[in-house]
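Run folding on both entries below.
>entry_1
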Amino acid sequence: MLTLFHVLEHLRSPLEVFRQLHALIEPDGRLFIEVPWALSGAISPANRYFKAHLFYFDADTLAAAASGYFDVLAVDTTENLRMLLAPKKSPQPLTLPPPGYAALSRRKLVDQGWIHYLTSGLGWLKPAKIIQRWWRESRIQALKGKDILALF
């Protein structure tokens, strides 16, 4: 199992990263990626864009970036975007989102202002979620890779 936790969004060429990971991974291996979810309503509008992030992904754009080398097995968008991938037998052409997808994504981002964050995004619950996440992650630290996969 290969893992990337909050790494891919910082790298200059995600497509090259997927190519290199594909070369490293065993045919029956898995790739687990977690990145900030670009369309999350739980992100404060003041913190949506971070200087160190070169790329922002939603489930469709991350799947498209990986599509030349990996198949998507599972997606979780609970706050962050988590994706479990399996390597393809051989590289394939990228599968891109449909025409007009960028405009639709832009519209979603424009609609996610402060009122959306505090109500639909439950921003007012953020302190409790931070404590809950800390507790959950403290339990996962002792698990092995296959045990983590069983959580999906």
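>entry_2
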Amino acid sequence: MDTPRAARGHERPAPAAFSPVVPPAVEIERLAQVFKALSHPVRVEIVSALSACAGACCGDIVRNLPLAQSTVSQHLAVLRASGLVEMRGEGRCCHYRLAADARALVETAIGQVFAARGCGGQTPNTLQVPSGACRKDTE
């Protein structure tokens, strides 16, 4: 019979010293959208290509990628939802360009993640972990 973890003396230490300071939930969702948009190599390639030009028609983007038009459109939709890419319809062509604040958006997102403080207000570089505070998962 399996004994509960607490009864076996393997309680997880109380996280009293850990108090993360994170942005509000809405801002966390925004950060997650930006990181999700950049989490796929094709989307990174699209952002990189758009950063080198004033914009491109969807057909031009598709011609430069080894993917179906529908797949490229799905990637562009994720990039648009994140705010990194803007779309303008011109007749039957959808013209995409990097959002004016895309670079600032990514830099801000990264800065907010690494600026968050936890563990008693100490930055990760100066974090002092008390011996025995962490346990191995194999115990």
